[in-house]
Amino acid sequence: MKETSNIYKRFEEAASTRVNHTAIIYLGTRYSYRKLKEMVERFASSLLNAGVNPGEKIIIYIPNSIQWVVAWLGIQKMGGICVPITPIYTPYDLKYIANDSDARTIICADTNFGYVTKVMGETPIQRIIVAGMTDLLPWWRRGFGYLFDVVPKGKVEKGENIYFLRDMIRRGKDSVKTHEHGRGGKDIAEILYTGGTTKFPKGVPLSHNLFLVSAMEQIRATDPLFPPEENIIMGNAPLFHILGQTCSLSVLLVGGTLILQPKVNLDATFESIQRFRARSMIGVPALYRMILEHDRLDDYDLSSVDYWFSAGDVLPVEVSKRWYERFGKRIFQGYGATETCGGIAMCPVDRENPPKSVGRVVPSKDIKIVDPSTLKPVKPGEPGELIVHSEHMVTAYLNKPEETKEAFINLDGKLWYRTGDILSMDDEGNLYFIDRTVDTIKHKGYRVSASEIEAVLQEHPAVVASCVVGVPDKKVGERIKAFVVLKEDIKGITGYDLIKWCRERLVSYKVPHYIEFRDMLPKSKVGKLLRREVRDEEKRKAEKL
After folding, report:
1. CA end-to-end span of the chain, whole Å?
2. Which of 287, 338, 429, 525 is least surrounded by Cβ atoms within 10 Å, i.e. has the fewest?
């Protein structure tokens, strides 16, 4: 396949060689590359007919679905800029992102229509395109869903500048425009919003060049296992997130198949893997733990999967060991960031990877491990902050000059992105995640990793989740406090029991001083643990004393 610097043209090339091959499997329905391309072209034409111009930003506010894929590729086809966001955003979040991105058009689920109309008058949004989650399914499947009331329904009003995605695809049949917008290369293909450590999400503009280089690198990590066009991916990562895009969605750029569900349901996931013989699955560590603890796991055959991939957080060694014992296959890890368009490091599939390694640096990225204070390189093997450079890298956040200045630095004649993460590298080039710089606890002069303590606590058979933060203390800097969620059926476990567990596994200065039991822990929209919320809560308590 020849090189191209436009996302849609890359998809078009794959579709031309895999015409009748299955591109998407959504809720049990197969869509060929021919059918997908046809729907995408019709939708792109209808966008142009509705007055959307190349270069305009369009918000995608719907769950994982065939509709999401048609929308994303259709926007690329007509030269727009995608702004994918989580479908669980509230009007508060939606209003901020619409204003920050200056998006004039939004594609929303019918269940989110009320949220959109609520903020429309306070944002640049002029057009609403509504998608129902069964819109593109065969009529009999739609009827079955509504008959048994298993399809969420939102109240939608008709009106000026309100369109329906299904109708746009139908109308586009007779008026497909072949508009050559000329966008690609360094032009922005999409803007992804990332939370990080600031109050508001930061817009990360990703160019066609950057996306294609990163996506190809990550989707072809499985080449030693099977040809890329034979990959069938169970895509459990959200498509609005860089993990779901570069490690799942990008399979459509190499001729493979993507299985999608609107939300994660383990039995549905297992059934899809078994029925469609999935070759890969993409997920976060919490999902793999949930799978291992699922009551009906033994009822399904998951043996077709050769590539189990985990990213988004550090995979606990205990989960990795249990997985190998259960399935006889490894979970491969990766490490990346939205600002680097995903993968900075990935575990090779054709060699043994150390248990705690998050992989080796991918070819498109240059890295340095530096002292966070001085930005001087640390000694080989020692931990430091990871900074990243690449040819097509992001150079700034959208409308965030102060955050840009802090995160993107010039060093040795190159621009580098500061990940804010502490990592180390061994002699063989394996990277190890230690902690986030902001999540490093300073106790008696020691730098203590919150992640390390959390991992030890989560290895306890009674613990399902943990969060560790530093509590301000005038004498020692910070004391270590752990917040723990126990499994529902566990009784009689005390804080003393968990502290004793930690003492047997950690050096003395890393053992938590306090244990607090919680029913749940705060997480971001993409499922990441929000230590900063717990930390801020403890700071407020300390200030009142």
Report:
1. 65
2. 429
Tokens of 115: 């949220």
Domains in the chain, CATH or no CATH each = 7-222 (3.40.50.12780), 444-544 (3.30.300.30)
Q: Closest by alpha carbon to 202, among 469, 435, 405?
A: 405
Instruction: Give the pLDDT confidence of 438-475 residue by residue, as tens digits.
Output: 777 888 767 788 888 998 999 999 999 999 999 888 77
* pLDDT classification of 84: cutoffs 50, 70, 90: very high
Give the mean model confidence (pLDDT) for residues 417-434.
95
* Residues contacting 31, CB < 8 A, separation 6+: 22, 23, 24, 25, 39, 66, 136
Q: What percent of the chain has pLDDT over 70?
A: 93
Average pLDDT, the chain: 91
What distance in Å separates the CA atoms of residue 535 and residue 516, rounded to the nearest whole number? Answer: 13
User: At residue 392, what is the residue type?
Assistant: H
Answer yes or no: are the C-beta atoms of 125 and 17 closer than 8 Å.
no
Handedness of CA 96, 99, 101, 106 (dihedral sign): positive
85 within 8 A of 383, measured Cβ to Cβ = no
d(CA 64, CA 469): 33
H-run or E-run covering 191? strand 188-194
State how far the Cα of 84 lies from the Cα of 156, in Å rounded to an integer. Answer: 21
Per DSSP, the three-state class of 239 is coil
504-542 CB burial, b ≥16 within 10 A, e <16: eebeeebbbeebeeeeebeeebbbebebbebbeebeeee
Report helix, strand or coil for 49. Answer: helix
The predicted pLDDT at position 533 comes to 86
